[in-house]
Amino acid sequence: MKITKDLYQGSLTLLTDFYQLTMAYAYWKSGKGEQEAVFNLFFRKHPFQGGFTLAAGLDFVIDYLENFKFKKEDLSYLGKMKVKDGSALFEQDFLDYLENLKFSCDIDAIEEGTVVFPNTPLIRVKGTLIQCQLLETPLLNIINFQTLIATKAARVNLAAKGEPVLEFGLRRAQGIDGALAASRASYIGGCSSTSNVMAGKLFDIPVSGTHAHSWIMSFETELEAFEAYADAFPDQCVFLVDTYDTTNGVRNAIKVGRILREKGKEMLGIRIDSGDLAYFSNKARKMLDEAGFPDAKIVASNDLDEHIISSLKTQDASIDVWGVGTKLVTAFDQPALGAVYKLSAIKTESGDWEPKIKLSQQSLKINIPGAHRVRRYFTKGKAIADMIYLEDQEINERGIVIIDPTDATRRKRIMPAFYQEEELLISIFKAGKKIYKSPDIKQIRTRAQSQLEAFDPSHKRLVNPHLYPVGLEENLHHLRMSLVLKAKNFENGENES
């Protein structure tokens, strides 16, 4: 679907930080604007203190890039910007340059629904410095949020252990855009449906919902409300039973369920939205079974997340379907993924690619130089390790060592000849032309489920997950270390400390 066209009626090229435009102007002014570079988009830590992350948002990125163009009204707005003396901030020749600018980068990316890990490039951008720089903010905006929510959804669904999870966070989401993106990412992460009707229409996601307490309160009695609802929707009755008294609500649902049955229809279930969910679900299950409704489902909601669901599971709560809203679509316990976008290589005047390093007092923030590929190794369908390696590096099939980018003492030896492998970074755009066939959202969701199944349960634990091996191929590790030492002047016997 065309997100930009349908939702925003045109280009989103000004959806960027102001300093991206000032840098673009400075690149142009200095004559470096057409110099080629490579940038990587990656994150440094798993969200939610987890052991995995689920990539999402690529389809939005593709749509953004296919509509990348500065419109006349965009340039008019930029042309009105002034400096202190009243003169124009941007020269007209630069604005003319932007007007004629056509997206022409190479984009490699990891497909949506793929399990990913820190320091792995989710997107690699190769192109002119100006274009690469202008893409930083929108790509981060898209990937950061959708990857975060897809990961949260996957965690919630893992806690539910195969039982359906309904996403209904629209009313609590971070605005219209946040709600739509969250519904999409939640479905990718495993939710079976959404309450968000617009997301259902735009992204082909199943929609679901019952009724609110206000429906009950608008009638003289709860029983009347249930009867009226059953009259309106005899084939999809799920009654909200906790408006006044949960136990009595279940009794009234049973009464109306019997009326439906006399008409050849069947009550689908009840929903409990407050109170002690373990206690009331078990009590409701007993009442429904004794009344002859063993197939009636019990839906639970009320500020659920993966931890509460896990707790209810350990209490043997009789809950069949989980309704999750606020804590899913807002990523309640961690509101940002923290992905970054860093320059990793630049082409010199001689035509050679020069790897670039960014130093930091925090080793976690030292980037990985060069243009990379990412390879995942499998045995018997189970993932055993990921390797980040230089694009032009030949891999020794008889044996390689991968080295953790944050702790060089953590190493793993792999014999590639004995394993299956998958290249994770695939080509999406070549010279600005899309060459990738986008899967539909159901295919993406299926990929996410199969990806998660390929990892050992220890990596998917909600608390204290086991560390999955992700490492730099030895040559890349040595390149990185040599650049770090050179930048710190150790080669000259100097040390800034």
TrEMBL record:
Keywords: Glycosyltransferase, Ligase, Phosphoprotein, Pyridine nucleotide biosynthesis, Transferase. Pathway: Cofactor biosynthesis; NAD(+) biosynthesis; nicotinate D-ribonucleotide from nicotinate: step 1/1. Residues 14-144 form the Nicotinate phosphoribosyltransferase N-terminal domain. It is an enzyme of class 6 (ligase). The keyword ATP-binding does not apply. Residues 167-349 form the Nicotinate/nicotinamide phosphoribosyltransferase domain. Transiently phosphorylated on a His residue during the reaction cycle. Phosphorylation strongly increases the affinity for substrates and increases the rate of nicotinate D-ribonucleotide production. Dephosphorylation regenerates the low-affinity form of the enzyme, leading to product release. Transmembrane segments: none annotated. Its EC number is 6.3.4.21. CDD domains: NAPRTase_A (cd01570). It catalyses: 5-phospho-alpha-D-ribose 1-diphosphate + nicotinate + ATP + H2O = nicotinate beta-D-ribonucleotide + ADP + phosphate + diphosphate. Residues 374-479 form the Nicotinate phosphoribosyltransferase C-terminal domain. GO terms for biological process: NAD+ biosynthetic process via the salvage pathway. One of its GO terms (cellular component) is cytosol. The keyword Ribonucleoprotein does not apply. GO terms for molecular function: nicotinamide phosphoribosyltransferase activity; nicotinate phosphoribosyltransferase activity. Catalyzes the first step in the biosynthesis of NAD from nicotinic acid, the ATP-dependent synthesis of beta-nicotinate D-ribonucleotide from nicotinate and 5-phospho-D-ribose 1-phosphate. NCBIfam families: NAPRTase_put, PRK09243.1-2, PRK12484.1. Belongs to the NAPRTase family. PANTHER family: NICOTINATE PHOSPHORIBOSYLTRANSFERASE (PTHR11098:SF1). This is Nicotinate phosphoribosyltransferase. It comes from Algoriphagus hitonicola.
